[in-house]
Design a protein that fits this description.
The chain has 22 helices and 24 strands. By secondary structure, the protein is α+β, with helices and mostly antiparallel strands. The N and C termini lie far apart (65 Å).
């Protein structure tokens, strides 16, 4: 006899509403505060402590910041600023304890603490503490050294203690110096078996040094005895020179500086002979990957001033349309850095600036300074405008070719060839559809049979496409593989690319888990970065994660199979089962049956996808140029500095 069905509301009670006090909330939902618990979030802990030290420089006190990576993966950050106040806070506990244990506590909310600052507005220090096994702070101030330690642990009963004071604040010595030293060890319970990437830290410290003239940043990695120091006096201008170091440049660097409404603006830009526009923007030294109002102000001013100059000097006739911003900025390498108080970011992790006054100030300063510059450098100004006109003509030609293709005016056999490569999805809903770009016909055949034909399209590639970093746009448009990708995505290419016309919500690269597959991934990612960058900006590009192993367990009545994506997962699976196991190593996607490919790599319910994002525009641009460009020496230097050639004998 069936029992009475209970109302779902009976299972939702008052006591089910949990209040997470103190830093426990950070521990439960770390992604809300640092973005992820992967490599990006791990290094974010370092940035927050470094950013607090940089705030002391912005306040005109600190001139040196030292970062040390210790052998046990703990990190120490030292500055020579004023030192965190060491007295008692009005709340009844030491101020240092408040800074490291209370969310939204700090000197960044008005008063005389900081007029211009980065960090997570009083969240950063406490978040780093919450996600660390332990954190120690030492303050040199008022002739003394003050120290305090915080720890996280779990009682046997399951009660969590997160970032709690393990010692009282105490004087441990005398010092005539001032400043703060913070040491911490990220918690393996949060980040797993992590590894601090010295290269990632070095690039960020160098970036900070570029953006803050008079500040010296040093990095020491005790694991490898690496040590480096960064200090630059040229600001954004020197940064642009560094970023364009391996490119063929077309003009001298334009350097704009000004201050208005207590907002400091610094812009430097230079053009190269490529097609990609890169604007690396910062607010109080914090990278704004998502752009924001300061970028909008610069772009608007640059477009307006250049068009006005073109009309004043007869380069644009009265009836001709204005040049578009994308044409004017083709090949631009730009660093935009502003420093301001009362910063409003869009989102907790500060990807995008939302402060409305930043737009008008950047616009006004750029307009004034750029207008004068153009009048004083007529030859260079006309060269840049002629370059923009050529970009406009190329975009119009591409647009016309695209319209002709849509209207059935393709060259003989071209449409049939391109359509023959693509196996389309049945649905026409771009919000649901996915395009899998697959390495090889064999894997393409398995993917076609195993896919969800309603929403998944398959585009197999034959062999490796050409390196798009070394090729001209005309060469790209003649290449069969790239033409197939362009036609399948349906949104154009380069300046003519319109992400709104993209026929898919996800573009998924699915290649073999070997060196050739990795090379094809890199070539395709370079292509998307150079010619369809809005796809990456909108988070539509992904890398599929096919398994490396299939484990067949035998013995007993029920045989079973499992998959492993890494060597570590394989060993764990083998240790956990007492049954005899046969391990199959997939050499390529073509070795997987359609049902295996669906189950492990294509099924939205079970698959793992790696989303491609640009964490740092400046670093990404330089890395792509170095590793994929036609200059051999920079690539050779990078490989020698970063690749371990230790011989392994099996």
């Amino acid at each position: 006899m069936a029992g009475k069905k209970q109302s779902s509301t009976n299972n939702y009670r008052d006591e089910d509403i949990q209040v997470l006090e103190g830093l426990v909330a950070v521990r439960k939902r770390p992604g809300m505060y640092i973005g992820s618990t992967g490599s990006s979030g791990l290094h974010h802990l370092i940035w927050e402590i470094v950013d607090n030290a940089v705030d002391e420089h912005l306040a005109k006190f600190a001139t040196k910041i030292d970062v040390t990576i210790h052998k046990d993966q703990s990190i120490t950050v030292t500055d020579n600023g004023r030192g965190i106040p060491t007295g008692m806070h009005p709340s009844g506990v030491p101020t240092i304890q408040v800074v490291f244990t209370v969310l939204h506590a700090g000197g960044k909310f008005g008063g005389n603490g900081y007029k211009k600052s980065g960090g997570l507005h009083g969240v950063g220090a406490s978040v780093t503490n919450a996600l660390s096994e332990w954190l120690k702070v030492a303050v040199h101030r008022d002739g003394h050294i003050y120290e305090m330690r915080f720890e996280s642990w779990t009682e046997r009963s399951g009660i969590e203690h997160v970032g709690e004071a393990a010692t009282k604040l105490r004087k441990t010595g005398q010092s005539q110096m001032t400043g703060t030293t913070v040491s911490f060890l990220p918690d393996k319970k949060v980040f797993g078996q992590f590894h601090i990437q010295a290269d990632t830290v070095a690039e960020r410290l160098q970036e900070i040094a570029f953006l803050n003239a008079g500040l010296t940043m040093t990095l020491k990695d005790e694991r490898t005895d690496f040590s480096e120091s960064y200090s630059y006096n040229g600001g954004a201008k020197e940064f642009v020179k560094y970023l364009n170091e391996d490119k063929t440049t077309l003009n001298d660097i334009v350097h704009i500086q000004g201050e208005k409404e207590d907002i400091e603006v610094e812009v430097a830009f230079q053009f190269h002979d490529g097609f990609t526009e890169t604007i690396a923007s910062f607010v109080n030294t914090i990278p704004t990957r998502g752009g924001g109002t300061h970028e909008t102000g610069f772009k608007a001013a640059y477009t307006r001033v250049m068009n006005e100059y073109a009309r004043r000097n007869g380069l644009l006739k009265e009836k001709e349309k204005n040049l578009e911003g994308s044409d004017l900025r083709e090949g631009m390498m730009c660093v935009l850095n502003i420093k301001m108080g009362e910063v409003e970011f869009v989102g907790q992790t500060k990807d995008q600036l939302g402060s409305s006054n930043a737009r008008s100030v950047v616009d006004a300063i750029t307009t004034d300074k750029l207008t004068v510059y153009l009048d004083e450098h007529p030859d260079e100004s006309q060269m840049l405008l002629k370059k923009a006109v050529l970009a406009f003509k190329a975009r119009e030609a591409a647009r016309k070719a695209r319209e002709d293709a849509r209207n059935g005016k393709k060259g003989r056999g071209e449409g049939a060839m391109l359509h023959g490569k693509l196996t389309p999805a049945q649905s026409k809903d771009a919000r649901r559809n996915e395009l899998f770009i697959v390495e090889g016909d064999s894997a393409g055949g398995s993917a076609k049979q195993g896919r969800d034909s309603r929403v998944q399209a398959i585009l197999p590639l034959k062999g490796k496409p050409m390196n798009p970093e070394k090729a001209k746009l005309g060469d790209i448009l003649k290449n069969d593989e790239y033409r197939a990708i362009i036609h399948s995505i349906g949104a154009g290419i380069a300046n003519e690319f319109d992400v709104e016309d993209c026929l898919y919500s996800k573009i998924i690269l699915m290649t073999d888990a070997d060196m050739d597959g990795a090379h094809i991934q890199v070539l395709l990612l370079t292509f998307f970065y150079r010619y369809m960058k809005p796809l990456i900006d909108e988070g539509r590009v992904y890398i599929a994660q096919p398994p490396l192993y299939k484990i067949n367990f035998k013995g007993g009545k029920n045989a079973e199979s499992k998959y492993a994506w890494t060597e570590e997962q394989l060993q764990v699976a083998l240790k956990q089962s007492k049954k005899h196991a046969e391990v199959q190593r997939f050499k390529g996607l073509g070795e997987m049956n359609p049902d295996q490919l669906w189950e492990t790599t294509m099924n939205p319910e079970t698959r793992s996808l790696m989303q491609v994002i640009i964490e740092d525009a400046a670093k990404t641009e330089r890395r792509v140029t170095t590793l994929m460009g036609d200059q051999v020496d920079p690539r050779k230097r990078w490989i020698m500095d970063h690749v371990d050639f230790t011989e392994v004998t099996e």
